[in-house]
Amino acid sequence: MHAREGGYVPALTGLRGVAAWWVVLYHFADPLIDLVPTWVLSLVRHGYLAVDLFFILSGYVIYITSGQSLRAPARFVVFRFILNRLIRIYPLHLVMMFVYLANPLALWLFSSSGVGDGRYDWDYYVASIFLVQNWGWFERLQWNVPAWSISTEFAAYLFCPLLITFGVARLSTNVYKLIFAILFLAIFIGLIFNAAGAQSIGEKISSLGLMRCLIEFCMGLCLGAIGCVANTAGGMFRFSNSLTIIALMGVFVLLMNYFIPNYWFVPIVFVVLIYILSRGDVLFSRILSSAWIHYLGLISYSTYLVHFFVKDWVKFFSESIGFGQLVLYVLACLVASMVLYKYVEGPSRSILRRKLSKREMS
């Protein structure tokens, strides 16, 4: 399918679902020891890298859907863009923050260890309500831990009109300039993490998470600008795209198991993966567009925001963590995701967008 502005690529929605479940398994990986091959376990233990895929994919999709309108935007256009992004992320986040109040309450009532060893600081809670908790104010992640990335994405949304107007739009007339910009940003993020002494791009989230998001989001914007002028692959190109993805996955797994810090290659690997899937291939696009995987993509935001809460409660009720707890965790995450998507995320988005449209028409 052609990746033009306003275009929709089902495979990328499916990819988002796979990435969300990569994070889900990453946070409950121990029961998989001795149950899966070593390379599979290694892949699961690198599930934190799915966040980088989210950041790049978010920038890509936003440029494809909103890039032209933000190239020289009026004040109203910027306001509407940011409001639409908040409608997308905020209602479910707010609901989950209220749900998370059950955690310190349960610890206070039933745990002899007290309220969570600094996990439930109230300053962090207030910052989370305003989506600024990972803007450099705190030294550790608390409450709904994965929501740190939602905080940094909110910052990316605020900067997005400026990034497009004064950056990507000026490069979009030349594909080679966009490619150079992506390569430059990929090297730049590696240099930042290397200078900070990090061994992985998943380290130092409190101090580097915001920069990590902004750079990768900008890479996604540049990729989206390339996608708007790229032709859809066909015939033998679709077949070769599948072979390229297989080779890319092999290189990715190989590099993860060597002593090369992943910040040197992860962003660029994900850029290439998204680009190939946006053009289409004979195998992976079909798999990721299949009904169930596509549905997992639709509910992936709910999955991402609820899974750590489910993990907390499975561990709260279990003295040991084994395969049975893993099955319970997976099933509970799936059911909770479906319920939240159907009764919170989907309806709130529809209602708020209808109200916004009515206000614009009046």
SSE diagram, text form:
Layout: H1 10-26, H2 38-45, H3 50-66, H4 75-99, H5 102-110, H6 122-129, H7 148-171, H8 175-195, H9 205-227, H10 236-256, H11 266-279, H12 284-288, H13 291-298, H14 300-317, H15 323-361
Tell me the total number of β-strands. Answer: 0
Low-confidence stretches: 1-5
Structural class estimated from helices and strands = mainly alpha
The average pLDDT value, as a whole number, equals 88
Largest sheet: none
Assign a percent range to the helix content: over 70%
Assembly state here? Answer: single chain
β-strand percent reads under 5%
H/E order of the elements? HHHHHHHHHHHHHHH
- State the separation between the terminal residues, measured CA to CA: 36 Å
Radius of gyration from CA coordinates:
20 Å
Give an overview of the whole structure.
The structure is a single chain. The chain is globular. The chain is mostly helical. The longest helix has 39 residues, at 323-361. It contains 15 helices and no strands.
Short description:
The chain has 362 residues and is an all-alpha fold.
Keywords:
mainly alpha, single chain, 362 residues, disordered N terminus, 0% strand, 71% helix
